[in-house]
User: What shape does this take?
Amino acid sequence: MITSRDHHKASRMINRALMSGLLSVGVDVQDLGVAPLPVVRYQISALGLAGGTHVRKSPYDPQILDIKFLDSRGLEIAPDREKAMERLFFMEDFERAPMDGIGTLSFPHAGTDRYRDGLLGSVDPEVVRRGGLRMVLDYAFGSASSIFPSVLGALGVEVIALNAYLDETRISKTAEEFQRSLQQLSNIVRTLGADLGVLLDTGGEKVFLVDEKGEVLSGDLALALVALLTMRTRPPGRIVVPVTASRAIERMAGEHGFQVTRSRGTARALTEAALAPDVALVGEELGGLIFPSFHPAFDGMSAVVRILEMMARLDVRLHQLTRAVPESHVARLEVPCPDERKGAVMRRLIEATKGADVELIEGVRVRLGEDWVAAIPDADRAIFHVIAEAGDRERAQGLAEEFRDRITGWRKELA
Assistant: This one.
């Protein structure tokens, strides 16, 4: 197995504990040290390993540490396997290796080079070089800053780099800090006249885009633009998006001979969907993009390189492309609901929408002609996500508020 972590001292401590535990039961361990999660995923599949772990400080809560367990394909393990592992751990129901049977610890030296070469081989470098693109890139103090510059240099991209060093005190961001980072990126793109602005998340998995006019692109619009770039540069295939993605993607797909599949919005569901041979793109509205021809996982560095290649191939910029995206409006709300009442609220919601045009892929999604509204319980937080889409902003907001009020009322009744 492979082990890895981010650059926080707490992650180092837990990673060493995991390494010791794996060695003690006879597992050989390759420790990659500080590395972006996409690099770790790529390494597991490239080396044919049984799986891996990645320890990181939560990007959302400074008091939480995440431990990612990955399978032999580099995907996060299924929820039922997570529960089985936790049960075995707390029961201490696992074998101990004899003294001569403990695992061997090694440190792979060519890990990042292997990823770099694979990433460069997934695009046409000459097309990117001819594009002569200029990009402002915010590394968000993450470990991608130690790998990605050599990739972009090999592609001839002019990069203005921000926050390209490790800082363990800035791994987690509040919503306000995140918005400030985007606004700073927007101002610099506008001032320097760059072709694109990109904010990578600290783990190197997700990308947030700013167009050449300095406008910060919403998650829905960014996903639609990347989907459109894919449709215009790839042979017809399939695009996979969550049930909550904008209907604009289906409209564009019909014009370009592509199919759209709706999926659960979990990381596991989306990465599993990327394994199908006919899938050209998997994307979500929160900055996650998968180009399966490289590897089937969220990878911000791969996404940036592919976006640059498609922009260069079409000689187009994102703001220009916005005109080709059908107009639609999406409203998103969060509704507080204790975990113990989510099941009962879901039952009430299903009963209340009986007879309507309903999808139950994830949560409850009700189609109302061209419009739709969905309510999805959050797996980790005590909230429901309510999302609605309509032809005008007021209609979308009204649908979302109607479902919010229903959920709030049922929650109070069940108290």
The mean pLDDT is 94. The first helix runs from residue 9 to 24.
